[in-house]
Automatic annotation (TrEMBL):
This is Probable transaldolase. Transaldolase is important for the balance of metabolites in the pentose-phosphate pathway. Keywords: Cytoplasm, Pentose shunt, Schiff base, Transferase. One of its GO terms (biological process) is ketone catabolic process. It is found in: Cytoplasm. Its main location: cytoplasm. Pathway: Carbohydrate degradation; pentose phosphate pathway; D-glyceraldehyde 3-phosphate and beta-D-fructose 6-phosphate from D-ribose 5-phosphate and D-xylulose 5-phosphate (non-oxidative stage): step 2/3. It catalyses: D-sedoheptulose 7-phosphate + D-glyceraldehyde 3-phosphate = D-erythrose 4-phosphate + beta-D-fructose 6-phosphate. The gene is tal. HAMAP family: Transaldolase_3b. It comes from Hymenobacter mucosus. The lineage of its organism: Bacteria, Pseudomonadati, Bacteroidota, Cytophagia, Cytophagales.
Length: 218
């Protein structure tokens, strides 16, 4: 399973890189805005910095919602660095653009997926990744993890190469359940990745080991 970090914060990305388990990064316009990145030049330069930090796929989202605009922005993003994956929203022109990008060998991540039908359409268009949003479905009283299961099953039935990138993963149990269901990738904030480190019995056990060692060795 691949771990992507869902942030545009360079410090958090660096910390995840240093942990040695990071496979890529996802961003979105809200995450870029949170870092105060504004204007095309600043956005492009920020993506370049992220690509320099991480050896893996970096999803950069288009803002345009019309076909020509998505193609223009997507090609400019793809030109930035070989690791850029063009993140395209699940809309009609987005699907057409994913088809175009896939024929040109440009990697894509179809974002804002909330149904199995949307995921199937994106896979048929040739998306590299689909991003079903687990947490946002849970937020409205649906079962986000059930959607992961549906998409994993459908892609496996037909052997689609499109990878299931579980997004909007908010806590450790989400991540573990995505792993159990066979999601190819999870993307989540740094605290979810580092949350995997913790168990109270680990802390208690280590404290005992160190105390016993000290009793004998001083
Ligand atoms: C996916 O790529 C999105 O950036 C992200 O996972 C959304 O997460 P949120 O619902 O916690 O904002």
């Amino acid at each position: 399973m691949k771990f992507f970090i869902d942030t545009a914060n360079l410090k958090d990305i660096q910390e995840a890189v240093e942990l040695g388990v990071l496979d890529g990064v996802t961003t979105n316009p809200s995450l870029m805005a949170k870092e105060g990145i504004k204007g095309t030049d600043a956005v492009m330069s920020h993506y370049r910095q992220i690509c320099e930090l991480v050896d893996g796929d970096v999803s950069a989202e288009v803002i345009a919602t019309d076909y020509d605009g998505i193609i223009r922005e997507g090609e400019a993003l793809a030109d930035l660095h070989p690791n850029i994956v063009v993140k395209v929203p699940m809309i009609k022109d987005g699907i057409k653009a994913i088809k175009y990008f896939s024929e040109k060998g440009i990697k894509t991540n179809c974002t804002l997926i909330f149904s199995a039908g949307q995921a199937l359409l994106a896979a048929k268009a040739g998306a590299t990744y689909v991003s079903p949003f687990v947490g946002r479905l849970d937020d409205i009283g649906h079962d986000g993890l059930q959607l992961i299961q549906q998409i994993v099953d459908i892609f496996s039935n037909y052997g689609y190469p499109t990878q299931v990138l579980a997004a909007s993963v908010r806590h450790v149990p989400h991540l573990i359940q995505c792993a159990e269901l066979g999601a190819d990738v999870v993307t989540c904030p740094l605290n979810v990745i580092t949350g995997l480190l913790s168990h109270p019995l680990t802390d208690k056990g280590l404290a005992t080991f160190l105390a016993d060692h000290k009793k004998v060795n001083g």
